[in-house]
Every structure is written in structure tokens, then in C-alpha cells.
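S.,

As promised, the glycyl-adenosine-5'-phosphate run. Input:
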Amino acid sequence: MTTKSMDKIMALAKRRGFVYQASEIYGGFNGFWDYGPLGAMLKKNLREAWWQDVVLNPCGGALGPNGEPVRMVPLDTCIIQHPKVWEASGHVAGFSDPMVDCRETKARYRSDHLLVFGPQSGDRQGKPYFAYLPDSPSEAKQKKKAEKAFGDVVSLELSKLPTSDFPSILAPEAEKVGSLTEPRAFNLMFKTYVGATAGEDDVAYLRPETAQGIFVQFKNVVDTTRVRVPFGIAQTGKAFRNEVTPRNFTFRSREFEQMEIEFFCHESEAHAWYRFWRDTRVAWWKSLGLSGENLQLREHERDELAHYAKTGAGTSDVEYRFPFTAPGFGELEGIAHRSNFDLSQHQKTSRSNLEYFDTERGELLPNGSRKGEKYLPHVIEPSAGLDRGVLAVLCEAFTEDPSRPSPELLRLHPRLAPIKAAVFPLVNKEGMPEVSERLHAELFKRFGRQGFIEHDVKQSIGKRYARMDEAGCPFCFTIDGDTAKDQSVTVRDRDSGAQERIALDQVSAFLTERLGQG
Ligand code: GAP
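Predicted complex:
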């Protein structure tokens, strides 16, 4: 396994207009990222792939563990909800990270992200611990200092040190020992004020997850549609978390997008649905080109489980081996059995009855029907990050091949590629541009709703191919000297660089087959 360079991936993402630093002309804004023209399209394609495979054609028509097609309905709820929603969900009281501040550099860290170098012998002899953030420039600097002080060193988790040791820690980038504060809980929700008075009574929050909007509308969905449990409600949308240490490009951002399913089922079926969703979601990420060796499903240990998941079927993460986590993995999507924690919290706090009346359960009556059963359904929640998905797709697609005229390329899955095809005249004369313009117009009409269809007449053909390779365009069609003679064009495959000739009037059919839709 070779680890790809995150710096090169970020440079390409900027160069080709996938991802820009937010507010870049003002020096950027930590934890916020904007998507450029190709990035916006890539993100939209991933969101739409999810929407098609989750909402419109759930699981590609596969049957659920109940032997029936999976039922799913969409929803679009507000970013700002009634503040009581976040009290009921537990976010006001408990959605926090332990953080430490450096009084000297004014930097803020998550205490569970910081490590320290100490002596292998365990005896510091009055010398300090050297704190660092793994994979940051501080790691090498602090290691050098620690080795000078102790010789052989070991890494320890800061959160495992007693607070009495804090005065003896040299913080990353600090000059003086003892500048780190003790850890304290920091609520990750962004606060805002609703209304003109903007007093403490008007405090509201930007949602830290889209899920709660689904729970609070569960009853309305049941009452106004014909869905029956088991069924899911799906929603995509922005979420906001005031992360203490946003980092690793878009991986941990303060504004990001989620794609969440809350799947409601009877408690007795929760284990089966949990297993179904776990396997379905890994298969989905694979279908979009994330390779098996970089993808894993990790079952949470009991002590990792959220309070509401302790007694249930469990929680698993779909994890991807990002360059900055390699050889380890980072979370892409969580699949959790949330029991009926959220519905029961909202029922209690709102005093609204959120119970579902299931006419297919309960005692069998003499007339052959069922008595029915009232219950608060259990929930299986597959919750994916769209921005993390885009990042994983970019990391997976990024390929270096110094032997090619385009040494860096993006092997994006055709379904996700922002540019679906490019049409070039070999040279901008001899009747070639007229043919390429006609072909471009035809392809644009047919495939323009799926993505960009490029037409480019400038620069050498090698440079044009290289640009398309970096943009992840899967197919380039070139009109050359033979086109006028035999009505054929070359089609160049991005991944192999190989070219073959196909008939000019077969280009649309070729693309239809390769892109999967017409
Ligand atoms: N409703 C459950 C929930 O929000 P989560 O594990 O906190 O669960 C779900 O978030 C997904 O959202 C994660 O798997 C990740 O892909 C994405 N996500 C969470 N925090 C993020 C952040 N700060 N930046 C980017 N994506 C994030």
C-alpha cells in the first residue's frame, strides 16, 4: 500500500477548481471550504447518486429482511429548529468536546487529539512532556526536543495524564512550559439569535445534524402519507459544528453536509434491519469506486457506544483509509441502532403523542384482522457525510503515473465525474472544428443534464488530454485527419490512455453504455 500525498491532492483540487479555501482573499476561514465549478458538480453528483439509490430506487430494488421492497420517503427540514429540539435530543447538555487552550500561542486543541512525548523510562527528572498534534509539523519538532531531553521517547495520550501534570507540559509551538489549560467541555453547537431583540431568551442553534428534523416530523409524515413501519425518512442538508480543531482538509469542517436516513422499525426487527443497512451502505460506497482495501466496516466496542445505543444492535462505521489516517481509517458514515431514544425524548419534551399504531401487529381477531399494537418505533440510522464522501472519492481517484504525459489524474467513477466527455478537433483547421462542434452539440443535447460536456480547440492535444485527466473526465473524443475519410473518431480512455476508433455516429451510443444512462 502506498500512501498518497495529501498536499498533492489538495493542490490538484485547487488547481482544477474542485475545492477552494472559504473567504480565501481574506486569508481563509478555518474549518470552512467552498467548492469550485468542478467540485460543486462532483458534490451534486454524489448527493444525487445517494438520492437515486436511497430515495427514488431504495437499495436498487433489493428486498429488506422482511422480504419486501425497502420503503423510503424524503424530507427537507429547517436548519434552525425550536431550541427545545436540542434540549430533548441531548445536544444542549451533552454535545461537547474536551478542549484545552494554550495561553501563550492562543491555539485551541481537542485534548483527545493531543499526544505528548515523554521518557521511555517513565522518569522525567523534572523535565517537561512535549505535546504535539499527530501528523502536524509540531510532531517532528517536539520529538527532536524530547529526544534531546530523554534519549528514547514514548508517545502518551494527553487525555490519560492527570491534570496535576499539566503545568509540566510544553504545548505545540509554545516557548514556555505550562501554558496549556486544563480540559473543559466545549459545546459544538453554533448559537444564533432569532428575532430583533437578540436577548438570551432568543437563543437558537444551527443544527449539528439533520437527523432531529426527521424525528420531530415523524408523526406528520406518518399521518399525511401512506407509509407504514418499517420505512425510512431520508434527508440531505447542511450541518454545523463549531469543531475545536478543524483539520485534514474538508474531513473535519465547521460547516458540512450530511445525507441521513432514519429507518423506523419494530423493536423485534431492529437487529435484522441494522445488519441490512450496514451491509447495504458499505456496498454502496464500493459501487462508486472506493476500493475494498481502502474501505472497512468497523463495529464499535461497547464502551464507544452512545448512551442510547448501549442496549441495541450496535453501531458500525464505514471507514475509509484517507492519506492522513493511513495506515488507519477515518469515519465516512455511521450506522447506529438508536433504539427509540429520540422519539421518546421528543414525546416527553413536547408532550405530543408520537406513538405509531401498527395495524399488522397484535393479537389475531376472529375476523382475521389484527388487534393492532401501539409503539414508538426503533430507529436504524445510516448517517453519511457528503463532504467526507467527496474527499474519499477524490483521494481514491487521485493517481500518479510519471510515465504519462499527464502524471496526475483523477480516476473518478463515470457516474460521479463532473465532466462526462470532451470533444476536440486534433487541429483547429482543415474542417475538423466544424465536425467537433457538431458532435459537441449532439452530446450536449443528449448528456448535458448529467454533467459537463467540454469542447476545446486550443493548445496541443496532449495538453488538452492532460487537463481532462486532472479533471477526471473519463472519455475524450477527437476528430482527426481520418474523420473526413471514414467518418470515425478516436475515443481515449482516461485510465489507460489507450485510444480506439469508433464511428462518429456511434459516439452517443458508446457514451450511453459507459455512463449508464441516456
Ligand atoms: N445523526 C448522527 C450523526 O450526526 P455523526 O457520526 O456525528 O452522526 C455523521 O455524523 C457523519 O457526518 C459522519 O460519519 C461524517 O461523515 C460527517 N461529519 C460529522 N462531523 C463532521 C465534520 N466536522 N466535518 C465533516 N463531516 C462531518
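DSSP finds 14 helices and 27 strands in the chain. The pocket of glycyl-adenosine-5'-phosphate is lined by residues 209, 211, 241, 243, 252-253, 256, 258, 260, 331-334, 381, 383-385, 387-388 (CB under 6 Å).

- D.
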